[in-house]
Amino acid sequence: MPTRIQDQVAIVGVGASAFGRSLPESQLGLAAQAFRAALEDAGLTREAVDGLSINIGWPLGVDYDRVAETFGLSLRYVNQSWTHGRFITHSLQHAAMAVHHGLADCVACLCSVGFTRERGILGGPQDIEGRREEGGSHGESPVYGLTSPAGGAALSMQRYRALYGTTPEQLATVALTLRRHALLNPQAIMRAPLSLEDYLNARRIIDPLRLYDCSLINEGACCVLVTSAERARDQAKAPVYYLAMQGMRSGREEFIFAPPGLGINQQTTGRVTPREADLEVYREGGITQKDVDGLYTYDAFSPLVLFVLERFGFCGPGEAARWIQDGRIGLGGELPVNTSGGLLSEAHVGGWNSIVEMVRQLRGECGARQVAGAQIMQWATVWGDSILFHR
Amino acid sequence: MSDYAKPLPLVTPDNRAFWEATRRHELCLPHCRNCQRPHYPPGPLCPFCFDTGLEWRRLSGRGRISSWVVVHREWFASFRADLPYPVVQVELDEGPRLTAGVVDMDNDALRVGLPVEVVFRDVTGEVALPFFRPRTE
Fold first, then answer.
1. Segment A312-339, tens digit of pLDDT
2. Between A and B, how many CB-CB pairs are < 8 A?
3. Cβ contact A105:A52 at 8 Å
4. pTM assigned to the model
5. Per the CB < 8 Å rule, is B12 touching A208?
6. How sure is the predictor about A132, in pLDDT bands with cuts at 50, 70 and 90?
7. Which residues of A touch B112 (CB under 8 A)?
8. How does residue B15 score in pLDDT terms, banded at 50, 70 and 90?
9. Are residues A110 and A185 in the same domain?
């Protein structure tokens, strides 16, 4: 029987820099803001941090060695993945596993991005994803002008529409809901209300995705400090404990921006209902989807919110576009999603802004955005990884 | 044709035969000698039965559009004149799906399920690219 992570590891500090477009600070400068804020939040000094877990490195973000050198850290555990938003869960999981196995006492998960400065990475000739062997990991094909993660999300959403009849008005609910959340968040970049008319009239980026279906492009940094439950007891603020985890899925039936069965790339087409093996996180946590008080997910593109709901069995295959209507994923609804506004309306900080929000929610610090009685919250992605947190 | 400015395919040991075939205006994929299935993208062994005996065989060139997009944003200066341009994913009759461009059709005609067939464009002296055009069933 593997050792469970439940209540063995906790997040004890969160911090963020300012979020904005064309900020003057370097990625390291923003990282310093977030790191110092997280340390203050946890009541720790930098000497307490002996591990680092990073998923977005140079040139878009910061590499572990430059962070350690610049901040004068002394590390004995490092995890860094290839520069990509998809590895956020991985980063948090490795931090927890390192602490759990005594490879580190306190791991900082640090994400700092400079999307405005490094915009070329997101699409076009400088989008190196498209030059990966046999094409990009979002289905890119620069030979035919298909580039950017947006290309992959658009391929998925077009097929989903054809299979299930989703309308633009239904999809708009994702963007409109997250904008309403952002308006309650003083840190959010987007400050103006978004109407259905605004959404429909906005320019198309790559059909069927419109402007507001795509994440913001900005600078910003977040930091999350992970330590053992034992050390967490000494901290002033209530720890947020890991409850259960499951890892990233991969194989021919997987496409990063599609649920299994959608039929993108080499996926088999079919209405796939998650099996128990796909939902390890709930079994490990001893809960069901109904116990989740808030869902946080990587919302680089609005269809990803639909897909994660189906992947994790909140609704059946092809049902998500209808399921999200009538306020279901809004604050006050059955399953609030990305309550600080997400990548679509708060800021694109690699999804870490939603992790920070989730921790604050579980501590009861979110004021006007507070999910009443928040006990259990879930981070989950379209690529099948997830962590349940609770207080 | 030597002034072709768009990105060219990245040729690797595993896919070289694919691009040599397109130069002959043929669509070919590696097939497994054991289970007979073709796979895409071309790899060093059969992803289905894990056998290492592969053989390149020609495909029918026929399939159906399984998804499509229309790019409105200029990401490549070399595609500026084509905006807004389509990119499709085609489910070949033999099973694998391929991403490609289309010819002989308007963006308005794109739909999932549309029957298509492959044609080839010689874009440089060395490279021919597969495109798909509508076909009658």
1. 999 999 999 999 999 999 999 999 999 9
2. 105
3. no
4. 0.97
5. no
6. confident
7. 158-159, 162-163
8. very high
9. no
pLDDT at A2 over 70: no
Give the span between the Cα atoms of B103 and A209, in whole angstroms. 23
Using a CB–CB cut-off of 8 Å, the residues of B that contact A are 6-10, 12, 14-15, 39-42, 47, 66-73, 75-76, 79, 82, 84-85, 87, 89, 91, 96-97, 99-101, 111-113, 129
Which residues in chain B have their CB less than 8 angstroms from residue A204's CB? 70, 72, 84
Q: How far is A253 from chain B (nearest CA, A)?
A: 12
pLDDT of residue B29: 98
Using the beta-carbon criterion (under 8 Å), do A139 and B73 form an inter-chain contact?
no
CATH of the domain at A182: 3.40.47.10
DSSP-derived pairing of the beta strands B128-134 and B97-102: parallel
**Topology of domain B60-137, per CATH?**
OB fold (Dihydrolipoamide Acetyltransferase, E2P) (2.40.50)
Which chain A residue shows the shortest CA-CA distance from B85? Answer: A145
* Rounded-to-5 percentages of helix, strand, coil across chain B: 10, 35, 50
Taking the CA atoms of chain B, what radius of gyration do you get in angstroms? 16
Prior bond of B96 cis (ω within 30°): no
ipTM of the complex: 0.97
What is the reported pLDDT for A190? 98
Domains contained in chain A, number: 2
> A366 and A227 share a domain?
no
Per the prediction, chain A carries an average pLDDT of: 96
